[in-house]
Automatic annotation (TrEMBL):
This is DUF5666 domain-containing protein. It comes from Kutzneria chonburiensis. Residues 27-56, 73-99 are annotated as: Disordered. Residues 27-44 have a biased composition (Low complexity). Keywords: Signal. Residues 1-26 form the signal peptide.
Length: 130
């Protein structure tokens, strides 16, 4: 039992020393000590948090009119959003079949971002001439 107690004590001291060295080296270099908590800054590609009461709707434009936009979501359900002159449209005019992401409050679309089509990676084809 004594050797087990010594082993545990040695492990605790080693861990404490490692934390102390990390904190001291971080202070000496001016960089913050590493943290195990989640970063406050969203990583690239992640959507930023929205204000309370707002949400995102993503999908394909099913219908579009001067005052409404119907979006078919990935799960097949549809959501009809109200649009008005204050609705900010980013990425071009809305057309049926486009992929969009909208920020909404209730059923009012605040912003609608049109997804840009991905560039084709296929090599151009050439026709030999004689």
């Amino acid at each position: 039992m004594t050797s087990l107690t010594r082993t545990i004590g040695a492990l605790v001291l080693t861990a404490a020393a490692a934390l102390s060295v990390t904190a001291c080296s971080a202070a000496a270099t001016g960089s913050p000590a590493p943290s195990t908590s989640a970063s406050a800054t969203p990583s690239k590609g992640k959507a930023k948090p929205l204000p309370a009461g707002e949400s995102r709707v993503a999908g394909t434009v099913a219908t579009v009119s001067a005052s409404q936009l119907t979006v078919t979501k990935k799960d097949g359900s549809t959501e009809t959003l109200t649009t008005d002159p204050a609705t900010k449209i980013e990425g071009g005019p809305l057309q049926q079949g486009q992929r969009v992401t909208a920020v909404v409050k209730g059923d009012q679309a605040l912003t609608v971002r049109v997804a840009q089509p991905h560039a084709s990676s296929a090599a151009p084809t050439t026709t030999p001439t004689s």
